[in-house]
Design a protein that fits this description.
Layout lengths: L3 E6 L4 E4 L1 H7 L16 H10 L3 E7 L2 E11 L5 E10 L1 H36 L6 H32 L7 E4 L1 H11 L1 H6 L3 E6 L5 E4 H18 L5 E9 L2 E9 L32 H11 L3 E7 L3 E9 L4
Parallel strand pairs: 7-9
Antiparallel strand pairs: 1-2, 1-5, 3-4, 4-5, 6-8, 9-10, 10-12, 11-12
This protein binds adenosine-5'-triphosphate (ATP) and magnesium ion.
């Protein structure tokens, strides 16, 4: 889009407004017959006329961020004839800048914690602070855990940037979700035992759908990883899958503290965690659900979460059976 241009006379009356300026300012009211709407420019116009200088400002109008560059219009004797204003809508750019800064902050924060553990425990071992072999082994296993956590963080970030950047292609195949669910659950057996949890699978015979098997496995694993991580010990995780008119719905329910209702809309955002003070061993990076949402969106599906007052949380996703 070309720039918006407005010219004001020396008495600040509007002379010309091009269609782009009207589009940028967005409101029906912005026309030369409605001087009230141009009030926001007045202080800048006066300064430009007084100082006979160019001026660049960012102005908020109706929730948009508008870059406005002002130039005095003068004759050869430097008498002010008016002011030319060039407008650009920079809302998107500024929002992206903000997101980028926030993202870098989040990533640095997530990297810093495991790195300080790695440094601390390695230094302690090198300085031979502990000579008990059992304790040394414990330090080494913390170092290994933190290294794995870093690796997972980097892999998740790479995944997300590929998916969000549109640099990935779904490898669609004919899959049977009921079989896939059983296969994924089987792999989790050792973890379930360790956490004293059980999984109950209740699946209809599901029709074959076209989907990217590896990516759907990733969705199932991320959701089940959460269900296991945030479930009460000794609890039961229920997986229910059914055929609906236009596809398949899979739901996973776990008991536990649940998710506060007002936080439900945000859990799909990168790095969003409910309770940052939860014990470190249950803490993740907050990327799992962002990946799930992106992958399900890529399949033209839907994913949502529901809380039940008795302390259960259900995550469900829908996959369409027809491919457009
Ligand atoms: N089944 C669940 N029960 C209760 N809370 C949940 C459940 N699933 C997710 N949450 C909450 O939503 C937040 C975001 O989940 P998400 O999977 O994106 O991140 P994470 O599990 O913290 O880290 P990651 O999956 O990247 O290791 C979690 O921190 C947790 O607080
Ligand atoms: Mg998770």
């Amino acid at each position: 889009m070309t720039d918006g241009v407005i010219t004001f006379g020396s008495d600040n009356t509007v002379q010309i407004v091009n269609p782009q300026a009207k589009a940028i300012l967005g409101s029906e009211g912005y026309n030369s017959k409605n001087p009230e709407r141009y009030k926001i420019f007045m202080p800048f116009l006066n300064r430009v006329k007084q100082e006979k200088m160019h001026l660049a400002e960012e102005i908020k109008i109706d929730g948009k961020i508008i870059s406005a560059r002002f130039a005095p219009l003068m004759d050869e004797k430097s008498t002010i004839l008016g002011v030319l204003v060039v407008l650009q809508d920079v809302t998107k750019e500024r929002k992206l800048d903000h997101l980028r800064r926030e993202f870098i902050g989040d990533v640095s924060h997530e990297l810093r914690t495991p790195l300080s553990y790695l440094q601390g425990y390695t230094e302690a071992l090198l300085d031979q602070i502990v000579d008990n072999p059992e304790e040394q082994k414990r330090y080494l296993s913390i170092i290994l855990d933190e290294t794995l956590r870093l690796r997972r963080l980097v892999n998740d970030l790479l995944d997300l940037s590929q998916i969000e950047g549109g640099h990935f292609v779904l490898k669609k195949d004919k899959i049977r979700l009921d079989k896939l669910i059983v296969r994924v659950v089987k792999k989790l057996d050792p973890v379930l035992e360790e956490k004293d949890l059980s999984i109950v699978v209740d699946c209809d015979q599901l029709p074959i759908i076209e989907a990217d098997e590896d990516r759907i496995v990733q969705v199932l694993i991320n959701l089940l990883d959460n269900a296991m991580r945030y479930a009460d010990p000794g609890g039961e995780i229920k997986i229910h899958a059914k055929t609906v008119e236009e596809g398949i719905i899979v739901s996973m329910t776990n008991t536990g503290v649940g998710i506060p209702e007002d936080e439900l809309p945000f859990i799909w955002e990168r790095f969003y965690k409910i309770d940052k003070s939860r014990a470190r061993h249950t803490e993740g990076t907050g990327l799992g659900l962002a990946i799930v949402k992106n992958l399900i969106d890529a399949h033209r599906g839907k994913v949502w979460a529901t809380n039940y007052p008795e302390g259960c949380t259900t995550f469900s996703f829908f996959l369409p059976s027809k491919n457009k």
